[in-house]
Each structure stands twice: as C-alpha cells, then as structure tokens.
Amino acid sequence: MTLQVPPRSLGILNLERGVPVGAAPPAPAVGSMLNPTTFDFVTISETVAGAWVENVVRGDPALEPAFVAAAQRLVQRGAVAISSTCGFSVRHQLAVATSVNVPVIMSSLLLLPTLLRQLPARAMIAVLTYDSTCCTEHLLGIENRAERARIVIGGIEGGKFWHDELKRPAPPLDVAAIEADVAACITRLRSAHPQIGTILFECAAFPVVAPAIRRITKLPVFSITDLCRLAMASTT
Fold this sequence. Notes:
The chain is an alpha/beta fold. The strands form two sheets. It has a four-stranded parallel β-sheet, sandwiched between helices. The protein folds into two domains: 106 residues, Rossmann fold (3-Layer(aba) Sandwich), CATH 3.40.50; 116 residues, Rossmann fold. The chain is built from ten helices and eight strands.
C-alpha cells in the first residue's frame, strides 16, 4: 500500500467576506493570494472568525485568539508556512508565530528592513497601503530614525476599492479600479519624493496590479506574494 504524502502547502489566513452560507464566493482575481494559479505550490486557507476589513485595518486586539486558532488549524491541515490576506494583520505576527512551529509571514511590511538595505542610502521606499490613516509607525518595524525617514506612505482610502472592501458581502475585486487608485497614489508620492526607488505593497489585494505598476513606474514592486514565495522556497 502506497502512503499518500500531502503536498507542501502555504496556509493563508483569510478575512470574513460576508458570503451567504451555501453561496459560492467570487472567483479570485488572477494574481491574488487566493487564486491557485498565483503560486507554483498548493495553498490552503482558513477564515479568521470575526475578522473583517474594518476591524483588522483599524486594529482590534480582541481578534488575536481567532488569528491564532485559524493558524493552528492550518498547521494541523499540513501548512508549512502561514501568511494572510491583509497586511494590517502584522499586528498579530508575534502571537501567531509563537503559537505554531512553521514560518509566519503575516505582512509584506516584514520586508522593509531588507528593502532599505538593498537601496542606496539616498533612495526612498514608497509603501502603498489600503488606508494610510491606519498604517501607523509601529507597524513598519523600523526604529532607526534615519531609516524611517526614507519611507513614505501613501494610501487609497476613499477610492472605489476602499469602499468595496467594506461592503458585506464584498464584491469581486475591481482590478481596473485598484490599478487606477494605486497608480494615482504613486504619481502623487513620486511628485513629492523623486528619490523613491522601490515600491512595497502593504495591501494583499494589490499584487493583482503589480505587473501593470512595474510597467508604469519602471520601478521594482514588492508584495506579500513575493514574501510567500521566499518563505516556501526555504521549507522542505
């Protein structure tokens, strides 16, 4: 008898989307965390009970046990690394990493120290976020003042995608709206800070427009999907 070895899987912590029980969720956009064609490895997901866009983005500490429980379920199902569909869940990075025995990469913001060091000292990084009013200093994980001064933050709050994500149920991703909002935000940031040399997407929905933004800006663009590939490449 041949034993079936489960595939190496990336476990993804997903937020509530408000899809009615029994209804099929919208098909994930090409390039998104939940689209099976985005990665060349298997992904599995668990919904974090009670975690909606609004309370994850603004930071609700009461969600931490639900994040931990969902991460532990993913490991029990065979996940060899854990990530999430919202960069603001970096608030729960320590708690989740402490609760499981696999690599945990809750947010692309974890890349910031590395990206700062790969650029010349005069170059800046633009962090593109779902909501810049909630992307506070402590989420960046950068304590050195000189390094912090090289990071500029821009958000798409108030745009179509921002409003769509607050709906219940959330509609399918409007990729064109995301691209328009992100491109406009980057244009504003580069006008004020021409030293920008790299773009980091905080929002886990933004990777769907990463190829377009690379073409428009001619700059490197990093996202949570890049960090996921790195983490999975390090596992056995």
